[in-house]
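We modelled each protein-ligand pair independently. The example shown here corresponds to the pyridoxal-5'-phosphate entry; the chain sequence is given first, followed by the ligand as SMILES.
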Amino acid sequence: MALRSQLLRKVFTTNGNQVRQLHELKGAERAGVARLREVLEDRLQDIKRAKTFKHERVISSPQDTKVKVKGAEGEFLNFCANNYLGLSNHPEVVEAAREGLRKYGAGLSSVRFICGTQTLHKELEHRLAQFHGREDAILYGSCFDANAGLFESMLTPEDGVFSDALNHASIIDGIRLCKAQKHRYPHRDLSELEHLLAHSDARIKLIVTDGVFSMDGNVAPLPGLRELADKYRALLCVDDSHATGFFGATGRGTEEYCGVMGAADIICSTLGKAVSGSAGGYTTGPKELITLLRNVSRPYLFSNAPATCSGCFLEVTVDKPFAENLPVENV
Ligand SMILES: Cc1ncc(COP(=O)(O)O)c(C=O)c1O
């Protein structure tokens, strides 16, 4: 106990040298940490040689079309945030967050099923399901978590998942976690997908695709995917993170853009891009699936409830189509 509090004091009152002492044993660095540094240094060099080392620019202003960057003079035009509707720093969202913090506190310090569900969460889930015209919805801390918790929960080795080759990393990782038969079809290639579906005798067949693909910005062929799903008794799951709230005439996403409202059986999406400007994710679809996710989905069961701010955009956006609420220049 004494050692523990000594270590904590060093961490919290630290300068660089004191942190280093944490890893020392009798004046020398612990062998395990020294080895780790060696191995990681090599890997970091590899990343630098591949020119994929990431340098983060530090923004010293709110997220917006113009931002200030630490260490640089003036303002910069920002073309790379996913703040499609300008909600990150929208005055009404900020005001709603203030009011929400006053009313609900900062967060729950608990997972949802123990004592972490507030009226705000239930309301948000209800209104997100309504927005998409689905039976029910479940919130997660992020859409990454929503995807990490979906496939393992709903699919067993008797089932099959059919995933577009360019799907988002969170779908790829979510599929890795499940025991279903895994099939990857070439990007947007309906004939190859049909071949795979036709040769599968899986109990549940789940086709999964980004709605708008996050890297290339192109759109999934939803009408064709729906036709194949119907022909082969499959389900269609669309991750609409890059579409919800602003794509399609009323912001209903890729289905609306493609003129096939209701084509997806399951929609996963994020509250961290167009919608809310904050963070969070959700899955919406058949009520039995959502109930199952509340019972077995690990990122839901074993992670804290979404923070208050994630829900505070409700009054500003969800009631009406998101895009209708905002000045045209933000859309
Ligand atoms: C298609 C897609 N799905 C999921 C995510 C993850 O969303 P979140 O930031 O809510 O975890 C992203 C984010 O880049 C995405 O583009």
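The mean pLDDT is 89.
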